[in-house]
Predict the structure.
Amino acid sequence: LAKTTQPISMDSYEGQEVNITCSHNNIATNDYITWYQQFPSQGPRFIIQGYKTKVTNEVASLFIPADRKSSTLSLPRVSLSDTAVYYCPVKGGNNNDMRFGAGTRLTVKP
Amino acid sequence: DGGITQSPKYLFRKEGQNVTLSCEQNLNHDAMYWYRQDPGQGLRLIYYSQIVNDFQKGDIAEGYSVSREKKESFPLTVTSAQKNPTAFYLCASSPAQGLNTEAFFGQGTRLTVV
């Protein structure tokens, strides 16, 4: 069963760059790596997705090494509003489900 | 506006009663999912459906049931067999199967057993 490993929590300060790493156990060849952000009492929302190397959008960057066994979400110059839980879901054993794991709780301090 | 809607936002249930949570999407998505989230925890997969009239169990399906009679609807029933149903329930949909597409989430239903 594919699983992910992320740090449980991270602290940062406003204006800093934050990097959150996720390990993907047994990610399949055709799977993309996707990150989501969740605020309290809300559903998660999509941040970024990639397959290999580097992807950048207006919110974040995603770095994926050649072996694709891990990925790093990079948030440039975080603000207090970036305080949230971040997930890197992978597919489960039945190929078409989507499992989120515990996520990483990021706290940005002033 | 296109989106995914869960109702109600808050739900109270007496012990021993079944209750059904609604999830509707007008995004024309094939896949739909139900998750449970307990305080301070991550999301756990209850059921998912790839196509109409088909659904699969996730990690914690015991005490829950679903149906997928229409593409846009995926209701979740919390039965009396679920011993600890108080939680935040999230429904999601995506255009195709698995991870290669973006999933959209509803705003959730908070169920409390009284």
Remarks:
- The longest strand of chain B covers residues 43-51.
